[in-house]
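I'd like us to work through together how a protein chain folds, taking it slowly. To get us started, please write out a protein record for me. Label the sequence line and the structure token line clearly, so we can match residues to local backbone shapes. Once you have written the record down, we can walk along the chain together.
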Amino acid sequence: MIKESELILNPDGSVYHLNLRPEHIANDIIFVGDQNRVEKITQFFDSIEYSTQKREFKTQTGIYKGKRISVMSTGIGPDNIDIVLNELDALVNIDLKTRKPKENLTSLNIIRIGTSGSLQEDIPVDSFVMSKFGLGLDNMLRSYLIDEVSNTALEDAFVTHTNWDIRKGRPYAIPCSEKLEKIIESDKIFKGITATAGGFYGPQGRVLRLNIQDEELNNKMDNFDFNESRITNLEMETAAIYGLSSLLGHNALSLNAIIANRASGTFSEDPYKAVDALITYTLNKLAGAK
């Protein structure tokens, strides 16, 4: 039995942070960072059956072209992903009444739709990027036993290439779900490695008033290549989603609309249009999946 202090439930039986019970979520779930983006997706739904919000975690479940889908905001950063993935897994794989893991486990399909800046000049604004790997620079996943799901060869190559200061913790590399990749991919989507930082300013190379540990890290990442895969973009959630999903037996894929190109210094003239295009593309692919 899982202790009450480890799996905290609200008085109505819902999981503590997400404020959800098992019947409230679909097996196909779309993650967004911003709570205001949830309705930018569900506005396309034929109907909405359930909606709730607690803190930054907003969830709506409904029907799109016959497919039941949940949309959930995770907030910013790997720490929030730790909350969301563990509580989602508890909803489907732990009996909340007996507090025991179920014998027959459920695999959720989780797709993140986000915005990001490209690190490569030839990946233009308004394009879409699919993360073949999540490269975690945040150290959150190292709290778990990850050797069976991580790509140590990619990690070693990155550490060597960047002369990584191991005092910051060892980076981790996790692949995407091949199942979801086949459903979503197209010739128009760029693929590569998405680096996940633990913060927005210093951890992503931004300098305001504080000096950072490695001023050349972004340039080193620009030039990194592993088996013909480049680091395409830098954000704050993908590697954590991939890592926890792999450990818990769920399928995960991260898609980003590129609204800025940090190599060329350009920004999308209409970032909302780019995001809407990625939303409708993803919804139609999910609705058509068998």
Observations:
- Residues 17 and 54 are 7 Å apart (CA to CA).
- Residues 271-288 form the longest helix (18 residues).
- The chain has a mean pLDDT of 95.
- The first strand starts at residue 28 and ends at 32.
